[in-house]
Design brief:
By secondary structure, this protein is of the alpha/beta class. The chain folds into 2 domains: 192 residues, Periplasmic binding protein-like II (D-Maltodextrin-Binding Protein, domain 2, 3-Layer(aba) Sandwich), CATH 3.40.190.10; 107 residues, Periplasmic binding protein-like II (D-Maltodextrin-Binding Protein, domain 2), CATH 3.40.190. The chain contains 16 helices and 13 strands.
């Protein structure tokens, strides 16, 4: 918490009250670019994330003097429960969200904008069995995030079927009430689950733990199978930035500053992975070496504008064709991806 608040412009004072008891006081510091009048003119924003893949980016953004100059981060909320995160989007409580694409796109009737995506190819299948493809894990239990009708399970079944196999020959296991990535990851490394679908960063955490133990596992890349089925598609989108539409309309200058700083933060993380791991370890609650592996494996690329719209349309056309989603991909929908 101290590290995160420090990046938000706070200083702290620690006082020991008695043996084993400390009080920590936080107070806002004024930067060389900020005075009281300027601070009062800044735009308030509530920022949230339920996808830990974005945490290194968020920590770098919190260091931005440009953002501090233009935006007062009124609240920064980090959720473990996706459903609560989505409730803040639909209610308009969150101005800026870091969220998964498919989940957010289903909120098309809400007042939202998705001007940029920056997380690509985010899912893999890990198994303790020797496996190169789905055929090799036929009949095995696959511990899967969320629930049966959610995107991870439906995309996996699409990939299985498109690979010439029957999804009914695979047993998908879900948690109650949902399959939480944190629980699936913990079950895999503890040996309670042999085959799992994981997003980043949990996939890299699991891989690093198994490497350190000297235990062999197999990694099946969804991106590799996706491109075998859809030749030349390239990376498929996973997550990005979701803005409250009202915020983007009322504060175009601040929105542009945030987008520019987001692009800059992504570039910095890609070019400074070791420093980024050290910056983010407190927020991610993992050892630096696991975060470094995650940053080596994750695919961060800032994409916006026409390139984004084209890729999103291609992606949802495929998902619609194979009943992964049922969404009308019209001009109104695609306009969500433009400011």
């Amino acid at each position: 918490m101290i590290n995160m608040l420090s990046e938000m412009g706070y200083e702290h004072l620690t006082e020991q009250q008695e043996q084993g008891e400390f009080y920590i006081y936080f107070y806002k510091k004024i930067s060389e670019h900020e005075d009281s009048q300027a601070a009062s003119e800044k735009v308030d924003a509530v920022i949230q994330s339920a996808t830990p893949v974005a945490y290194p980016i968020i920590m770098r953004l919190l260091q931005s003097e440009k953002i501090r100059k233009h935006i007062n981060i009124k609240e920064l909320k980090v959720w473990e429960e996706t459903e609560k995160h989505l409730a803040w989007i639909t209610s308009g409580k969150a101005d800026i969200s870091f969220s998964a694409l498919i989940t957010s796109a289903k909120l098309r009737n809400s007042d939202i904008k998705i001007p940029a995506l920056f997380v690509w190819d985010n899912f893999v299948l890990l198994t303790r069995y020797k496996a190169e493809n789905f055929q090799d894990i036929k009949g095995k239990e696959i511990h899967t995030p969320l629930f049966e009708e959610a995107p991870p399970a439906k995309i996996t079944k699409y990939l299985i079927k498109a690979s010439g196999l029957n999804p009914d020959d695979f047993k998908f296991v879900f948690g109650s009430p949902f399959g939480r990535p944190e629980k699936i990851y913990a079950d895999f490394v503890s040996g309670q689950a042999d085959t799992v679908i994981l997003r980043e960063p949990e996939a890299s955490y699991a891989i690093k733990i198994m490497q350190d133990r000297g235990e062999d596992i197999s990694i099946i890349s969804f991106n590799k199978i996706w491109n075998e089925i859809n030749p030349g598609f390239g990376s498929f989108p996973n997550a990005g930035l979701v803005l409250k539409g009202e915020f983007a309309r009322k504060h175009p200058e601040e929105t542009q500053v945030f987008l520019e700083e987001l692009r800059s933060a992504i570039n910095w993380v890609n070019e400074n992975r070791s420093a980024s791991a050290k910056l983010a370890f407190d927020m991610m609650r993992q050892p630096v070496d696991r975060i470094e592996l995650f940053l080596d494996r994750v695919n961060f690329e800032y994409v916006d504008g026409e390139k984004l719209t084209v890729k999103v349309k291609q992606y949802f056309d495929i998902l619609n064709q194979h009943d992964v989603v049922n969404m009308e991909i019209d001009k109104e929908f695609l306009d969500i991806f433009a400011i």
